[in-house]
Specification:
The complex is a heterodimer of chains A (115) and B (113). In chain A, 0% of the residues lie in helices and 54% in strands. Chain A is mainly β. In chain A, 37% of the residues are buried. Classes of the chains: A mainly beta (115), B mainly beta (113).
Chain lengths: 115, 113
């Protein structure tokens, strides 16, 4: 079946550095991908919608200059957390819809820890 | 999208059927019921979805009441690996390029040995 792959699955970085998370659609093309964030014991919250070949759309309260999204190809979207701080530590998850299907497929998530 | 209400948590004995309820009394005629689950430290996994007829696949069955105001996800023979948070989401089905899913708090199912 359709698979969405995220990399890395886990990353630890120092405060002030930047971290890039990749989200790939395997065996299908995704013109749109969604990025979610999940804090401990909370549900997933949509951060932004990534659109291939155009600018991402950010949800209210999400800083676009801090969470850079690039969707340069039909199978890859990247989320870069710039100048990371400990409060950015979270579980980041991407998803992609498969054309012709109504359900979306989710990556395995990336656990970011900023120390 | 219609709002859903689920119990915060449930327990189920291993090997027994797990019945997870969801209320969606404000569901519209063109909205589907979707179920996802999230095992600890993993991304959500699609389980099943339906409009008004009962649905069954290799993972679960979905029973939707005739008035569509509630539904039940049934895991026929729960195993320890079914321990997860289960999300019931109601939304319009969009086939082209999709739309994000809005996740509520879900039901934390614990399958006990």
């Amino acid at each position: 079946g359709a698979v969405v792959s995220q990399h890395p699955s886990r990353v630890i970085c120092k405060s002030g550095t930047s971290v890039k998370i990749e989200c790939r659609s395997l065996d299908f093309q995704a013109t749109t991908m969604f990025w979610y964030r999940q804090f401990p014991k909370q549900s997933l919250m949509l951060m932004a919608t990534s659109n291939e070949g155009s600018k991402a759309t950010y949800e209210q309260g999400v800083e676009k200059d801090k969470f850079l999204i690039n969707h340069a190809s039909l199978t890859l979207s990247t989320l870069t957390v710039t100048s990371a701080h400990p409060e950015d530590s979270s579980f980041y998850i991407c998803s992609a819809p498969l054309s012709g299907r109504t359900e979306a497929f989710f990556g395995q998530g990336t656990r970011l820890t900023v120390v | 999208d219609a709002k859903t209400t689920q119990p915060t948590s449930m327990d189920c004995a291993e090997g027994r059927a797990a019945n997870l309820p969801c209320n969606h009394s404000t569901i519209s005629g063109n909205e589907y019921v979707y179920w996802y689950r999230q095992i600890h430290s993993q991304g959500p996994q699609y389980i099943i979805h339906g409009l008004k007829n009962n649905e069954t696949n290799e993972m679960a069955s979905l029973i939707i009441t005739e008035d569509r105001k509630s539904s039940t996800l049934i895991l026929p023979h729960a195993t320890l690996r079914d321990t997860a948070v289960y999300y019931c989401i109601v939304r319009v089905a969009q086939r082209n390029y999709g739309q994000n899913f809005v996740f509520g708090p879900g039901t934390r199912l614990s399958v006990l040995p």
